[in-house]
Design brief:
Order of helices and strands: HEEHEEEEEHHHHHHHHHEEHHHH
Strand order of the largest sheet: 1-2-5-7-6
Number of domains: 3
Helix content: 55-70%
């Protein structure tokens, strides 16, 4: 009997005690508080990324446009900072805005890396626009859609200056959007960007620019401003857009632009006594003793030296070879210049072939 009891006692003592199941760890939330909004999210890198775009928008509105920071109290009513949440909720738009307990809340889904910068900029812009409208006692839907789109594009341009050159280049190639589409936010962001820059240029002083932007954010009709600039808003837009694009030289050129500029640089038209004639490189080399030819080619070399750094890399070798030919034009033998000219033409053909390959890939990304 004692032996049996001892056996049971031994077995009971040897049974393992089940460890308590730990409670699931609550998801960690990171926060970054800036002047415009508190940015919240589960990933620190995403929170920092969006916060950078909020800070860029603040710099743009306060330093470029000289708009004071949105006050903490308006008409005796405390104004809460915006709340910008990085979430991925099924069935919800990529960027949405709402108010809750006196606070403007913006939700943004970053998801795709390719779209992250555009969405972060849009979220920051809609936070600013929402707070401006809310401070004036207006609903969030009161503001004109173009305002947030334009501010988002300016935010991206501030963080990625190459976007400015890209949009200007695109603008030269694309047909202008209708004013109605721009105001309703239905035009490409490039057009909203150009529209705001053209409007700023024409309304004049900084204080007037601020007034126009805040008024549009609070829901006032931008068309009333356009009516003071011209009888026809479409005519004003076409003229202002063209003036904006033509008065700013791009930092760098696209393939088509670089090819056209190269063609102009290598086209020689001179009056040799019987009216203007178009000469090839070898032909003009044999007329270099003429004063007009000598002066014209010297001016052409100066232009090339000024423009070569802006050229598209696809045409770099062709531009460089033409530059060598122009540098040696005054003193080298015509036969030596002919060899260099043949090299130049070869570089042009190779650049054209490369351009076609690149364009084919851009049109058909899956092609080999």
């Amino acid at each position: 009997m004692l032996s049996l009891l001892a056996t049971w006692a031994f077995l009971a003592a040897g049974e393992p005690v089940a460890a308590p199941v730990p409670a699931p760890e609550a998801p960690r939330i990171f926060a970054n508080e800036g002047g415009l909004a508190v940015v919240l999210g589960h990933e620190l890198a995403e929170v920092s990324f969006v916060a950078v775009h909020c800070s860029a928008l603040e710099r743009y509105t306060q330093q470029v446009l000289a708009i004071p920071a949105i006050p903490g109290v308006v008409n005796g009513v405390p104004q809460a900072k915006g709340r910008l949440e990085i979430v991925d909720l099924p069935g919800q738009p990529d960027v949405s805005v709402r108010t809750q307990a006196g606070q403007v809340i913006v939700s943004v889904r970053l998801s795709s890396p390719a779209a992250a910068a555009q969405r972060a900029s849009e979220a920051a812009a809609r936070t600013w626009v929402g707070r401006v409208a809310f401070a004036a006692g207006q609903p969030l839907t009161a503001s004109e859609p173009w305002v947030a789109q334009a501010l988002a594009s300016e935010t991206r341009a501030l963080l990625r200056p190459a976007m400015v050159d890209f949009w200007y280049r695109e603008g030269r190639l694309a047909a202008p959007a209708r004013v109605a589409d721009i105001l309703q936010g239905k035009a490409p962001e490039r057009e909203a960007f150009l529209f705001w820059r053209a409007l700023r240029q024409d309304v004049g002083v900084s204080a007037e620019q601020t007034r126009v932007l805040i008024a549009a954010a609070q829901g006032r009709d931008t068309r009333k401003i356009l009516a003071t600039l011209a009888k026809s808003e479409e005519e004003w837009w076409l003229a202002a857009r063209a003036n904006l694009l033509l008065t700013r030289s791009p930092v760098s050129l696209g393939m088509r632009e670089s090819a056209e500029a190269l063609e102009d640089a290598a086209r020689f038209v001179f009056d040799l006594g019987a009216g203007d004639v178009v000469l090839t490189g070898p032909q003009v080399a044999r007329q270099r003793d003429a004063t007009g030819v000598r002066q014209g080619m010297a001016a052409r070399l100066l232009t090339l030296r000024r423009e070569i750094l802006r050229q598209n890399p696809v045409y770099h070798n062709a531009w460089r070879t033409l530059g060598t030919w122009l540098e040696r034009f005054p003193k080298s033998a015509p036969e030596e210049l002919d060899v260099l000219w043949a090299d130049f033409q070869k570089e042009v053909r190779e650049a054209e072939a490369m351009r076609k390959e690149i364009q084919a890939v851009l049109v058909e990304p899956g092609s080999k």
